[in-house]
Specification:
9-stranded mixed beta sheet; Nucleoside Triphosphate Pyrophosphohydrolase; 3-stranded mixed beta sheet; globular; 23% helix
């Protein structure tokens, strides 16, 4: 539960994470420092890979723990009339030929592991992100899920044979993207420099009150047979932005996300009605450093029905989750997904709410 502090020099009050909060997150994130098969999720690995970039990690003051995300846009203190930003569409993305063999091999491997249940869906890629008076303007492209399998989702899986860029023999996709963008300098490529799929992710953390009035942040365990964060505690609701004739008509980020929101909510939170939820609140636009800097939105969705009813009614029709929605509580030994951890940090550091 966040602590309240008074600063006599400014005559102001603030909220911040308690020692218990930080210890809980530190325990839940220990798994990040164990290398996974396709991606090294460690924030330290991202910091080393992009050490020549000035990256603002999502982290509490002092950097005792940090989530592997670069904060691009912080919506938490924005006036409600600012909106979320604007978009424009460019020509579709062309996957780089240098990674074609790797992509083919990874698709076959994912198919053998039954990790491509949704097939090769159309997806939305960010080509460029401009900040216009702090408000994001995204230039986006059409891409495919298989493009992500061949790049952002298998960044640290070794190439069968090194891929040359000039006189550098690159050993994995992460190294290749850095070198092709900036040579030997270890910079995180800007969106327009990167050749990865960089499809847009949307993570929606949820809050709900119990019948006796306590406010909870919620979590949900991922299935062990998904490509991303298998078997981990995750935000209850997340998706990659799709692209179709409806989304191509969108001129702003809010409209773009709302096209997908209704469909995905019906699939992952079946049994609940639109009226069971409050207004979707934007928290941040980040770059997911563990996955090569792909764009990731974070939102909060308040549930208006008691947690007990939410837990009973919510049904996942996609088989992406295992079990019921649960509350987040201190003291347990858990494995949190980076997205769940980032959501918690964004909320803990915002000073906007208190969790029960």
């Amino acid at each position: 539960m966040p602590k309240v502090e008074y600063d006599p020099t400014t005559n102001s009050w603030s909220l911040g994470p308690t020692e218990s909060d930080l210890q809980h997150l530190a325990r839940a994130l220990r798994w990040l420092f164990r290398r996974q098969e396709y991606i090294n999720y460690s924030p330290d690995h991202a910091a080393e890979a992009y050490q020549d970039s000035s990256i603002q990690f999502v982290q509490p003051p002092g950097g005792r723990i940090r989530a592997p995300y670069q904060l691009l846009v912080d919506y938490r203190q924005w006036p409600s009339n600012w909106g979320w930003g604007t978009i424009e569409f460019a020509e579709d993305y062309c996957f780089p030929g240098a990674l074609a063999k790797h992509k083919t091999a990874m698709i076959r491997q994912f198919e053998r592991q039954n990790l491509l249940k949704k097939g090769n869906q159309r997806a939305l890629r960010v080509l460029r992100c401009d900040l216009r008076r702090k408000v994001p303007h995204l230039v986006v492209q059409g891409a495919f899920y298989h493009d992500q399998v061949g790049s952002n989702l298998t960044l640290d899986f070794p190439f069968a044979t090194p891929v040359p860029v000039g006189d550098v023999q690159c050993r994995c996709v992460r190294e290749w993207d850095v070198v092709q963008a900036r040579g030997n300098a270890k910079h995180l490529p800007e969106f327009e420099e990167s050749k990865l799929a960089n499809t847009v992710g949307v993570a929606i953390g949820m809050t709900a009150r119990s019948r006796d009035g306590r406010l909870y942040w919620l979590r949900r365990k991922r299935s062990k047979t998904v490509a991303v964060y298998p078997g981990m505690w995750h935000v209850p609701f997340s998706f990659g932005l799709a692209i179709d004739e409806h989304s191509r008509r969108a001129k702003d980020i809010k409209s773009l996300i709302r096209f997908d929101l209704g469909v995905e909510r019906a699939e992952e939170l079946g049994g609940l009605e639109y009226s069971d939820f409050g207004e979707l609140r934007p928290l941040a636009l980040c770059r997911d450093l563990a996955r090569g800097g792909k764009p990731q939105f974070f939102f909060e969705l308040p549930c208006l029905v008691p947690f007990e009813d939410l837990r009973r009614k919510a049904v996942d029709t996609t088989s992406e989750f295992a079990g019921k929605i649960e509350t987040i509580s201190n003291g347990e030994e858990e494995m949190f997904s980076p997205e769940l951890a980032c959501f918690m940090l964004l909320k803990l550091l915002s000073g906007l709410d208190q969790a029960g």
